[in-house]
Every structure is written in C-alpha cells, then in structure tokens.
Amino acid sequence: MASERVNDEAFVTLATNDTYALGCLVLGSSLQRVHTTRQLVVMITSGVSAPMRQQLVALFDQVVEVNVLDSSDTCNLELLGRPDLSCTFTKFHCWRLTQFKKCVFMDADTLVLQNIDDLFDRSELSAAPDAGWPDCFNSGVFVFVPSEETYRGLLAFAVTSGSFDGGDQGLLNSYFCGWATEDIGKHLPFTYNVVSQAFYSYLPAFKQFRSHVKVVHFIGAVKPWHQPFNSVTGQVSAFPNTGHSQEFLQVWWNIFMECVQPNLDPGHTGIVGELASLSLGGGGGGEGGSPNKRDDRERKLQWEQGQADYMGEDRFDNIMARLDQKISDTKQHPVGEPAEVMSSQRLAEGDTGAEK
C-alpha cells in the first residue's frame, strides 16, 4: 500500500536557465522513482523559457518564480574557478517557501538513487561534509526550515560579511557557523551527498559503501548533460579528468532518456535543442544532433579545463592550418555576404559553450 503524500514538507531545487532545468527534471524524476511522499518544488528565474516551464509544471507540484540574487564577490569566485556561480545566492529564496514547515534543498546537478525521505526527521541546518574541506558542509543538499527571518538574515549577512568562496556555500557555512562543532546530529552521512570525484580519491571506501550511496552530486563545470552520449548504443562516455563516475552518469542518462528527453521541444536552441534531437537506437551520427557540433563542444570543454591535445589534434600545425582555412574562407566570402553569415551561424552553433 502506497504511503500517503505529505503536503507540508518538500524537496526544493532551482533552475536559473533551460540547461539547469534539464538537471531539475532528472532530479525530480529520480525522486519520483524512489517513491518519495513529499512535495516537489522547483524555483525558476526569468532565464527559463516558456516551453521548459511547461515541462517543469508537468513534473513538479509547485513551480515558483523568483528574482535572481547576484553575488558581487567576483574575486573569490575566480579563485574558486567558477565565476559562473555569481547567481547562486538565488537559492536563498528557498527560505521564503513558508507554506512548508520543513524542506530539503537539492542542487540541480544531484541525482537520487534511494529514498531519502528520512531527511525530514533532521533539523536545520543538516548537511553532509564537503569532500574538499570536511569542516564545511556541502550546500548541494541540506535540510532547512522556511523562515522570512532567516531569509532576511542571510541577505543582511551577505551585505555585511560576504562569502569566503564567493558562492552560497561559503556564506551558508559562515551563517550557520556552528555546524562543524555544535551538534553532530546535523552532520549527514556522506552517502546523502557523494560528490562524484570521491569515487576515485578513495576507491576502497567507494567499493565498500557503494550500496549505501543515496545521492550523487555531479560537482564541477562539466555536468552530465555535457557528456557525449551515443544514441545508438544508449551509452554515455565520460570526459577524461572530470572525475565523474561512468556508472552514475549512465544512471542519469537512463532517467533523462526515459523521462525527460521525449518531451523536449526540438525547436530549442543550444544544448537543449541538441538533446531534443536524440533518437535512442536510431541512425545518424550516434552522438545526438550534428556530430561536428558535439566534437566542437567537447573540444572546447577540454580546452577550458586545460586539457588541449597538444601532441595530437590540437598541435600547432593543425591550429595554423585551421586559421589559414578561416582566412581563406573570409577572402572568398567577405563579411556581410550570405555565405559568410551562414558560416558564422554554424560556427556559433558548434562553439556553444557549456553552461556550468
């Protein structure tokens, strides 16, 4: 007999654009697959398009639009290597969901493998240790109690004290500064927020506790939706040196292809449009969309991570040959002629940067 739905507690996530909305859809689907009895809530900003909002409305119990809260701490964000995180303070809006008595916030790049409704037995602010500095908690998964007072306190703290890492995690750890020492009961087991890199940093422990992993967190700039996926074989190929587990990337993609991808609008641009064009088991390039687009995007991600293939495809003579070809194309089609305009459009499509 199915358990009754609990209406005053909720899992909450956030989408600031269409790409992260993909992650929210997979996260919500993964929660449904483990038969959660709690409400599913997604906060969105104006960066989420109307077609994607429709997909979110179909899955989540509540879709709440919020304003972007920007972090001006660009210096620390650059030190962290993630200047794209400037809008992550937006998640503080979750404390304004006072229609609920308790909630669990989960980042859009998390994936639920086992039922975690027991988190609602925990108090605020319960969270798992951060793998990089265990005296800090990772803010990708945490238990909180909605409160306008806490929301206002966080905003005031952001103005007066800022964040030591420029993002929400640094600020939340400073605001809830007693987490490390005051109450061990607020320390969630690592299995409730296992960052993917941990699989390789301590492999014996991963082998020992693999069956206990409840939530996987795909931290870093390269997300599951950036990984090359072969629509013929149904298999994902992990980028080298990103630290993500092939096993759990495959789980993410299995849920995406079953529950999310069939409902995407093929008219979308960018990554969402490419993923909407996938046809599992179909012909074509196999990697979804244009193979050239996939190759260009994968190479750009590798360059951004400092992983250029200087001895192979990216060696100096190949770069010079490509530059010579571009110069030759420009001479044949001066700027402004239709052929050059189309070429620029194709280049822009193939050079779509990965959202982080």
UniProtKB/TrEMBL annotation:
GO MF annotation terms: glycogenin glucosyltransferase activity; metal ion binding
Q: Which CDD domains match?
A: GT8_Glycogenin
CC per GO annotation = cytoplasm
The listed locations are:
Cytoplasm
Q: Name the Enzyme Commission number(s) assigned to this protein.
A: 2.4.1.186
Basic and acidic residues bias spans: 323-334
Superkingdom, natural source: Eukaryota
UniProt catalytic activity: L-tyrosyl-[glycogenin] + UDP-alpha-D-glucose = alpha-D-glucosyl-L-tyrosyl-[glycogenin] + UDP + H(+); [1,4-alpha-D-glucosyl](n)-L-tyrosyl-[glycogenin] + UDP-alpha-D-glucose = [1,4-alpha-D-glucosyl](n+1)-L-tyrosyl-[glycogenin] + UDP + H(+)
Residue ranges of the region described as Disordered: 280-299, 323-356
Q: Which cofactor does it need?
A: Mn(2+)
Keywords annotated in UniProt: Cytoplasm, Glycogen biosynthesis, Glycoprotein, Manganese, Metal-binding, Transferase
Q: Which residues cross the membrane?
A: none
**Composition bias, kind Gly residues: at what positions?**
280-289
This chain's function reads: Self-glucosylating initiator of glycogen synthesis. It catalyzes the formation of a short alpha (1,4)-glucosyl chain covalently attached via a glucose 1-O-tyrosyl linkage to internal tyrosine residues and these chains act as primers for the elongation reaction catalyzed by glycogen synthase.
Name the protein family. Answer: Belongs to the glycosyltransferase 8 family. Glycogenin subfamily.
Q: From the Swiss-Prot or TrEMBL record, give the protein name.
A: glycogenin glucosyltransferase
